[in-house]
Amino acid sequence: MGLNPILLVFIIFTISIVYVTLSTVRMILMMKGYRYLAAALSVLEVIINILGLGLVLENISQIQNLISYAAGFGAGIIVGSVIEDKLTLGYVTASVVSPENSDKLSKQLREKGYGVTDWETNGHEGKRRSLQILTPKKHELKLYQTIKELEPQAFVVANDSKTIHGGFWIRTIKRGRLFNS
User: Which domain holds residue 36?
Assistant: First the structure.
């Protein structure tokens, strides 16, 4: 190909990072229901991957190119995971079981802007309070920290929420008023 060997190693490394990062973003988009955007991104992803592999295979006798591609793949996983943390698309539903059968935790969370549905439940050791809390994924860690501060003994399980419809809280989010007070 005639490229400077050091430049070629750098190009292969960069292409590999971009390919793996795009792959990670594509998977996130698919999981969140953005099928068409994910499909469009996959076209770009394949083109970039073929370019990178082509450079490696064209210069297969130079081991540094193969190592560069593999190292770029590993670095791409790290970059992709950082981007995944930054994208934080969607919502999380947290199910919380409070050891106290009181609406104190529910009220405190509502005052902080969270949408909370609560009800009395029965646990192994008697009456408890169950809460269901919906929050944007970008506020997930803040929610966990808040629960831990307010009710350290609470049991928390969280899941990504794919479909949401209705409720006063969704209108609050759409108007941009969550956590702004």
Answer: 5-87
C-alpha 13/C-alpha 31 separation (Å) is 28
Please check whether residue 106 lies inside any domain of the structure: yes
* Claim to verify: residue 53 and residue 128 sit in the same structural domain: no
The structure's pTM equals 0.64
Q: Which of 135, 131, 127, 133 is nearest to 154 (CA)?
A: 131
- pLDDT of 32-44, one tens digit each? 788 999 999 999 9
**Does one domain contain both 114 and 61?**
no
Q: pLDDT tens, 11-32?
A: 999 999 999 999 999 998 888 7
